[in-house]
C-alpha cells in the first residue's frame, strides 16, 4: 500500500468535524486495506508504531526534523525555523516547503506503508553517538520521496504530534463498522480493555473477524484498563445500592499500580500505562519474592509510609517516587507500602470473571504478607451503622475514605469501566464541597499583575466517553503556589496546540491551547448550569453546559491518570442532580 493513500485519509479525517463522519472515513479505508496493514493504519493514526504501554516512542526533536526538512528541500535551516514559527508546527512547514519544491524534484523510490514503518522503526531504534545523524538522514530520505501531505504527517508522526482527531473510541467504532456490526462494538471494546492494544484488536478482527476477537484473553505483559468506581453522597446510600451488604475497604491515597509478575520479571504499570517499575523497584522485588504463583497480575495502591510510626503519609509524599532523576535518593527517603486489592490473572487463569471475594481470597492464598506488601483493610458490612464505623476508622487511619465493593455473584472485574460494583465515598463528601474533580488542562490565559509573564489561569475540561471529546467546565485560577506557577509553562509546553484541538469543545478562547494530557485535581463549591462552559452540554438544559463554581486546585497533579479518566459529563450531571436533591431538603 502506498503511504499517500493513508496520508490522504488522515487529511480527510482531520478536516471532518463530526465523530460519525470520521468513523465512516476510517472504516471505509480499513475495509480495503490488506489485513496485515490494518494494525499499522491504526497505530499510525495515533502517531505510534506500538500500543501505548510499549516502552519505545518516536520523539524526534524539532531541531532534527528542521534539519531533515532543510536537507530535503535544499534550503537553510533558519528558513525552515521561520516557517515552523509561522505555521506553529514542523508538519505544516514541511508540507509548504515541499509543495514549493515539488515541481523540481523527481520522485525516486515510492513511499510505501511498509517502507515508512521500517524507516520509523529504524528512527526509533537508532542509538549511539551518530544516532542524531542517522535519524535525520532516514527522515530526509522519506521526505525526499514524499508529496506535501505525506510530508506533513511524517513530520507530525516523528515528533509525536500526530493528532488527527480520531481517538480510541472512534477507532473502535471504525473497526466495528468495517469488519463486524454495531452489536459487536461492546465485544471489540472488551478486547481492547483487557489488552490496551488497538493494533492487536485491529489485526485480530481484520484477519479472523469477531470469532477471533472473542478469543482475545487477559495475558501477562499486556496491561488491562483499570476498573473504576462510581460515587454516592452518603454511607446509607452506598450500603443500600449494594443490596444491604457489601465489602468495604480503606481507600488509600496513593498511586495505583497494576503488577504483572513472572518468576524472572515484574512490570508495574500505572493507570496511564506507563512503566513504573524504575520508580518502585523495591515494590517489584518484594512482589516477586512474596508471590506464590508462577505468573500473576495484581492491583494495589502504593502509599508512602513513615517507617518509624507506621503511619500512612499523604499522596504528595508518594509522588516523590514518580520523578525520573534522583530516584535512588527518593527510594531511600520515601519508603512505600503496597496494599493489594485485586487479582486479575493467576497461572493461566483469567480471574476477571470471578466474583470479588474469590479474587481477594486468591491474593490471600498466593501472596505472603510482609512489611511492605499488605492486603487492603476490608470488612463485610451489613448496615449503615457498621459502614459508618468502618469509614470513621479509615479516616482516622489517614485514608481518603472507603471503597465499597459488591460481593454478589456477578461482582466481576470490569476492565475499563466505571460502575456501581465499586462505589467510593470520601471524607470530602461530608464537607460543603461536592467532591474533587479530575480535569484536563485544555487552555491557559496569560497572567496579569503578580502573575505577569506566566500563565495566570487554566481552562479545564471534563471528558465525554460517548463522543470521546473534552468540554470545558471551569477557568481555574486559584490554589496555585508560586513554585507550581513557575513549573507550569514547562509542564504544558509539549502539549501546546496551534489551534483549538480537534477533540476539544469550548466557547471560551484561551491565549494558548493544549491537547488534553495534563490532569489536575480541582475542588469546587458547586456545579451550576453554565451558558459558557460546554461540559455536559444539553444534559440539564438545552444550549447550556455545566460549570464548576469557585474552582480551586488541590495541589494534586494526577500524572497517574489518563485524560480519558477525567471526570465525565455524566458524573458532572449526576453530582448536579445530587446537589439539587440536597437543596430540596430531601437528602
Ligand atoms: P478516584 O481516583 O477518586 O476515582 O478513586 C479510585 C482510585 O482509588 C483507584 O484508581 C485506586 O488508585 C484508589 N484506591 C485506593 N484504595 C483502593 C481500594 N481499596 N480499592 C480500589 N481502589 C483503591
Secondary structure elements and their pairing?
Blueprint: H1 3-15, H2 19-31, H3 38-45, H4 62-73, H5 77-87, H6 90-101, H7 113-125, H8 131-144, H9 148-158, H10 168-179, H11 185-195, H12 198-213, E1 228-231, H13 235-241, E2 246-251, E3 255-262, E4 266-269, H14 281-290, E5 295-304, H15 315-318, H16 327-333, E6 336-346, E7 349-350, H17 356-366, E8 373-375, E9 378-381, H18 384-396, E10 401-405, E11 418-426, E12 436-446, E13 455-464, E14 469-476, H19 482-492, E15 496-497, E16 504-505, E17 512-514, E18 519-523, E19 526-530, E20 545-549, E21 552-557, H20 569-583
Helix pairs in contact: 1-2, 2-10, 3-12, 4-5, 4-6, 4-8, 5-6, 6-9, 7-8, 10-11, 10-12, 11-12, 13-18
Quick rundown:
The chain is an alpha+beta fold and 587 residues long.
Radius of gyration: 25 Å
Named once each, the bound ligands are:
adenosine monophosphate
CATH superfamily of the largest domain: DNA ligase/mRNA capping enzyme
Summarize the main sheet: 8 strands, mixed
**Shape by Cα distribution:** globular
Rounded mean pLDDT score? 91
CATH class term of the largest domain: Alpha Beta
- Quaternary structure: single chain
How does CATH name the architecture of the largest domain? 2-Layer Sandwich
Taking the alpha carbons of the first and last residues, their distance comes to: 62 Å
Helix content: 25-40%
**How many individual helices?**
20
Class based on secondary structure composition and strand pairing:
alpha+beta
Low-confidence stretches: 582-587
Give the CATH topology of the largest domain.
Answer: D-amino Acid Aminotransferase, Chain A, domain 1
Number of domains: 3
- Strand residues, percent: 15-25%
Strand tally: 21
